[in-house]
Each structure stands twice: as structure tokens, then as C-alpha cells.
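Supplementary Methods, section 5.1.

A reviewer requested that the exact input to the structure prediction be made available. We therefore reproduce it here, unchanged from the version used in the analyses.
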Amino acid sequence: MTNGAPAPPLVRPRLHLAGDASARPAGLERALTRAGFQVSEGAGYPALLPPDAILITLPDAHDGRLAAMLEAGKVEPPRLVLFLTEDPDAVVAALTLGADDALVAPVRFPELCARLHARIRDRQAPRRTPYEAEVRETLRDLVAEARTMLQPEEIVVALVRRLARAFSLAQCSFVVTAPGETEGRILADVDPRSGEPARLHLADYPEIGEAMRTGQPVAFSPVHDGNGDGGAPATIALPVRRRDTVPAVLLLRPRESQPALSTAQIEMASSLAQVAAEALDGAGGPETGAASGLDRRLQEEYERARRYSLGFSLVLLDVQAADEGNGTGNMAHDAGELLRREVGARLRRELRLPDFVVRYGGDEFAIVLPETGPDGAVRSVARMQERLAELPLEGGTRPRFSAGIVSYPHPAVAQADDLFALAEAALMRGKLQSGERIGRAE
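The structure derived from this sequence is encoded cell-by-cell as follows.
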């Protein structure tokens, strides 16, 4: 977008028009569409993808349909009643009968649209699980992680798992495909069923093709599951947009005990899926992305430490398979690469949430430990080495680790870049040791 204008929402809120069509002010539908709503109307609304709000238009509060349309006792989207009359008592009557909001003529469209958006936000907020905040907070780190420690397909798996946990999904599948292809490849899948194929025949899932063609979410009944249970929650085929293409589709299905996904939840899922698509692009390559992510994080930590008189440590951890580097050829190299992938995954689980770890320089990992001094960093590295040493290798050998540590503040550090040179020198000293193999910056 230009001139600083905000980007339009990925998914428009769904609004259903009910009541008496003759009581609608002239230009209502146009105003709602311009305000970003996806409008439907009729006696009922789609069961597979229910609206985020209902707008009821009636001539006045004496209309016999009002009480029936506001009948309590069942979970409904927020309902706003719009009366053609100017009688202010009509608002009181509607609210008494259970309406979430009400307005009388003359109606100002900007106020009406603002009230609808506010009611949708209010209703969706309680449906968010405690994990959604966690997902949002870790999203930025996962973007960096996609270009650093993890392989592209691993970041897709990580994102899908977090999304399934956040929304309590029965199914969350990331399907890669392209126009003209007859099959879609499942890169990541969270589904309790076993025996699910790694590929989907797109002829059996026309909704995927529709989502790719239109670029809009498509809801469908889970008839493909083979159980024919029409009462089960709808599956949503959510297109994953990347630049001007749709390289993948995210299939989402809530658990039977959960309500349909809200617009806010679909919006968040779309954002997460785009992160996964960005990881699959692999733009810039893993080494370029690793250097960029580490530089940025180290600079941020350095500025924070200076501003608030805090300390932190940078660790370079070198990982080698026992036979690696002894001229044993591709097999030793492959074993070392598999080891480093497992080390990366283990480090991510063992470290604290504020810590940062990234693949660095091929055989090494760079670890940033906020608010950790030199003694704490040594203890942390020793603990990591002890736990990582449990990783088994073929032939019963064990991995070999060396580490270099520099802690800030340090008399030789005048800028963030100085930390790298000191950590690398400390790592060389660690490699020369025969015991703990942990070098410290002098």
C-alpha cells in the first residue's frame, strides 16, 4: 500500500442481513461492503461458515418478528437491530429482548459500521484460547528461525503445531500444490487419524482448487472424511498467498466441541501460513538469513543492555561428530549434518524462552543469553553439553562440543560487532582444551 495506508484485512468479517428488507435504509448494502464486510442475506445463513454478526432491520419495535429473532437460549453471533422508526423506546425494547445493540432512524452509516466491528471484536475475544497470545508473541522469532536453525519444512511443521494448539483444531494440514496439478503434497499435518496419505487427490477436494482460484477461504462439510457426519464442524480451505500466487492451502477443522472459527482466528491462521510460505521460498539462503537474524538480535540485546545497565552473553557452540574432520568422506559429513540438526532441535527445547539460538558458520550455533553473566553462561553451556552428549551416534560414538563465551559488559566491547571476534577467539581456546572445552573471552 502507498502513502502509509493500512493493508486491507486478509479475511473480511461475515455479516448476515435478516428481518424486513423494506426497512433497510437506501445504500445500506453498499456502505457495509465499503466498510469491509462480506454480506449475505436470506431466511438463514450458511451453517458451515456462520456469520460474525447479524444485522436485523425492522420497521419498529412492535413488529412481531422481533422477539422471535432475538430468542435467547442458543449461542448466536452478535445481533444488532436497526429500526426504521425514530422512536428511542425501540432501542430499549430490543436490548431488553436480548439484542447486543440497536439503532433507530436516522442512521449514520459510519456509526453503524463502527458498532458492528466493535461487537464482532467483543464477541470474538472470549473465544481466543490462552495459547493465542503465545503464538502471536513467538511469531517474529519463528520467522527468523525459518531462515536460520530450522530447515524450511521444519518451520512449516512448527507453525502448524502451534496453530492447532492455539485453536484446538482436530485437523490442521499444510498442503502444497499449484494450478494444473492433480495432487497436493501434505508438508505438515496435525490430525489424530492414522494412515492419512502424504498426498491428496485434488479431484476429491474441489474446495482446494476453488480456494486457489478465488484467493478466498472456502468452507465445506467433512464428507471427505468418509464418516458422512453432517453435524461435524466445517473444514476450511484457507489459501496461502505468496506474492501473486497461491502455492499452498491450509486445511483447518475445529474439534466437535469447538465453535466455528471466527474471522479473527482465520486472519491469524492466514498470517501464520504466510510465514510458512515465506520459509519455503528460502529467499537469500539459510546462511544469509542466519547472519541477518543473529546480527539483528545481537544488536537489539546490546542496545537494551546499554540502556538499562544489564548484562548478557554470546556463546558460540561448535558441534562435531567423532569421526568428522578425519577425512572419512561423505558419510562422516552426512552424520555430522544429521547430528547438528538434532542438536538444533534439542537446543530449542532446552533453552529458556528469552534465549536465542541460530545455526552459524556451518558447524556452529550462536546462542544469545539475555541477562546472563559469565558464570551463568558457563553453567548454562556446561548443562547444554551434558544433555547434548546423550545424543547417540552410529557405532556408539558420542558428539564432541566446544564453546566460546563472551559476556557484556566487557572492556574490549565498544559495539555489538566486537562480540563476534571475542567469542570466536574464545571458541578457539575452548577447542584446545581437553576437559570441558569451554573458552572464555579475555
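Residues 285-308 form the longest helix (24 residues). These observations are discussed further in the main text.
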